[in-house]
Amino acid sequence: MARNLLKNPNGEELLEFWELTENGGRMWKVEEMPGDFGHDFYNDGVTKYFVTSFELCIKRQVVDLLAEGYSSDQLDAQPVVTVEDWYSGRTDCGCTYQMTASLLDENHEVIQEFKPEPVTLDPECDDCSWKKVHHSFSDYGPGLRFVCFEHGGQDTRFWDGWYGVRVTGSSVSIEV
Description:
The structure is a single chain. By secondary structure, the protein is mainly β. It is 3% helix and 43% strand. The chain has one helix and eleven strands; from the N terminus they run ββββαβββββββ. It has one helix at 72-76; strands at 19-23, 29-32, 48-51, 57-64, 80-88, 95-104, 110-114, 119-121, 131-137, 146-155, 166-175. It is elongated and about 50 Å long.
């Protein structure tokens, strides 16, 4: 099984290793699973999640693949790169979720990008339980040196506090 190249994917170390590119409202926070008006996670080993506020909150990590021990030759062979994320909402407040994963060259130029349409969770028509986003990159050409993983969102009612989207279980892995 390929190892997760993201550090602190579940908030066990609060916000360590994450660059907070947007930190609106009451800012990013880490909470204990399942949280107020929340749902249990499928994996009992995951006990925390990151939660957003009433203004946009986005965080990211850029993984340096050479620093992680991969060689240029391994990366130029275009191994499959898989990204995964889990998100949910509260059962009492709607929220939006967005994510972008990018394969970058040595100059941090985008080689290939996965950017699904933003999702809105509405507790009136959705159970707001944990949902998985999954994508595998392949056939992207030589030159891969970094992976940028970015995600976040906010609540839809602008309630003061942490009523926005919840994220956890994020991963970036490479099959070599």
